[in-house]
Structure formats: C-alpha cells, structure tokens
Write a structure and sequence with these properties.
This protein is α/β, with parallel strands linked by helices. Helix content is 42%, strand content 15%. The chain is built from eight helices and seven strands. It has a seven-stranded mixed sheet, sandwiched between helices. α5 runs parallel beside α8 and α7 packs parallel to α8. The longest helix is centred in the C-terminal third of the chain and has 19 residues. It is globular. It binds guanosine-5'-diphosphate (GDP) and magnesium ion (MG).
Length: 245
C-alpha cells in the first residue's frame, strides 16, 4: 500500500537529470509516488521515464502532447495525482535546484501546521549562493513586488518547490489560472492564501542547475509583473477570487 504522497515532477529536456533525481526523491520519501509530467521532450526524456516506470512501480508518467508553459503541465499533473488518490502533493524542479533532502521536513511541516509549505529562498537559512547580484535583485524584487501588490505574507512567491494538502489544491480555479512559469507560482500561492490556507515557509538553499538548460525567459518575468497587477485589479473590482467554498 502506498500512502497518498505524490511528487509531481515536470520535465522538458531533462534526460541527464531524471535518472539521478528520481531515485533521490523516492529515497527521501520511501512511501511516495513520483509522477513525471513530460511535454514531449525532444531529447527523449519521456521515453526514458517510460522505461523507468516499467522497472519501478512507484514511478508514473503523464505525457502531454506539447509544451504550453509550466503552469499547464502542473495543472494536468496535479489533477492526475488527485484523481489517483493523492492526499499530499509536492511540486519541484527536475534539475537539482530543489534538493530532495528537504522533502521530509516539508512533508512534516505540512502535516503539523500548514496547508501549503513553500520551500523558501528568502527566509532565514535559505538562499541562492550561486547567483550574481543582478539575478538576485530581479528574483528578490519580483517577490517583494508581488508580496506588496497582493498583500501576501510569504517571502518567496516565485519559487516552485512546494508541498500542498490535496483539498487545498482541489479547490483551485484551474481553468482561470495563468500558466507562465513564474506567474503560475505566484497565483497559486495567492489563490490558496485568499481561500484561507495556512501558508508556512521553510528555508531552502537553491542551487543552479548543473546539467541541461533553463527554459525560463525575460518575457516570462515581464508577464509575471503584469499579471500580478491584473490579479489585484480584478480582485479590487470584485471579480478576482473564486467563490469561497
Ligand atoms: N513539462 C514541462 N516541464 C517544464 C516546462 N518548462 C520547464 N519545465 C521543467 O520545470 C522545471 C523548471 O524549469 P527550469 O527551466 O529549470 O526553470 P528555471 O529553474 O527557472 O531556470 C524543470 O524541471 C523543467 O524541466 C514545460 O513547459 N513543460
Ligand atoms: Mg531550473
């Protein structure tokens, strides 16, 4: 019997990272299920994931036909995991920026005191040692901006290392979410907080990927800034938040 903990791992051209990160994740959470969400990676990550799933029943693969933004991959992955009985869902990157060693602490924090746990670079004990001053300013500035405009308490709003309680995710207004990489992360935390979720940050040290290439771009950052303003604007005009459940 598996417990209801699922890790949702989106991949796009992660053929070098997947065979190493998957066993590291499963080793940290010995009861959990790993769901790889691959958007038809040209490098064959999806086929590799299929082979890994054949050898290990704890690994499952969701194939998507096209790359449509990280948010869409997460939406499909979360829905699939919830339909499969997931009670605790974890999202993380496949490129080692999110160290699997943090997983037990995040799951324990969720069980004790939270509906959403954010692996946070911007609380005491967290950080981004690999980044230069400019990248730090952009990332940190983005979180401060979103935090201020949206009136949220969390300090790291753009990161993608999070643990969720199933019911908190199940209540998301999936169809209306923005799907760009950074804004999806901000909007998910915003929606959860507005719906009354207890949000707790635990410190993580984020390391830059060593293998493969980043898929994030300047346009995704710009989109995030504009959408943050839009989210608050819609809310002030009384049409932003989903109906409270
Ligand atoms: N399925 C899927 N995965 C994606 C997509 N974009 C990025 N990823 C994955 O999401 C994670 C974070 O992406 P990455 O490029 O490392 O972003 P960065 O860390 O902000 O540079 C990695 O595991 C990527 O393989 C996408 O469109 N679809
Ligand atoms: Mg990365």
């Amino acid at each position: 019997m598996r417990t209801g903990t699922w890790i949702v791992l989106p991949t796009y051209n992660e053929i070098e990272n997947l065979p190493l990160i998957a066993p590291a994740i499963l080793g940290q959470l010995p009861e959990a299920t790993l769901l790889v969400v691959d958007d038809s990676s040209p490098d064959g990550t999806g086929e590799l994931a299929n082979r890994m799933a054949l050898e290990n029943p704890r690994i499952k693969v969701l194939h998507r036909a096209a790359k449509q933004g990280l948010g869409k991959a997460y939406t499909d992955g979360f829905k699939h995991a919830l339909a499969g009985g997931a009670e605790v869902l974890i999202q993380m990157d496949a490129d080692w920026s999110h160290d699997p060693a943090y997983l037990p602490t995040m799951v324990a924090t969720l069980a004790n005191s939270a509906d959403l746990v954010i692996g946070s670079r911007y609380v005491k004990g967290g950080g981004v040692p690999d980044w230069g001053i400019l990248r730090r300013l952009v990332s940190r500035g983005g979180s401060v901006f979103a935090r201020t405009v949206l009136g949220l308490k969390a300090h790291d709003l753009t990161g993608g290392f999070k643990a969720w309680r199933g019911p908190t995710l199940a209540a998301m207004p999936w169809e209306s979410l923005h799907s760009g990489g950074y804004v999806f992360q901000i909007e998910m935390t915003f929606r959860a907080a507005r719906a009354g979720a207890r949000v707790v940050e635990v410190p993580i040290v984020f390391v830059d990927r060593r293998l493969g290439a980043s898929k994030m771009s300047r346009s995704i950052i710009l989109e995030a800034l504009l959408v943050v303003i839009r989210l608050r604007w819609d809310e002030l005009r009384g049409r932003g938040s989903p109906e409270p459940s």
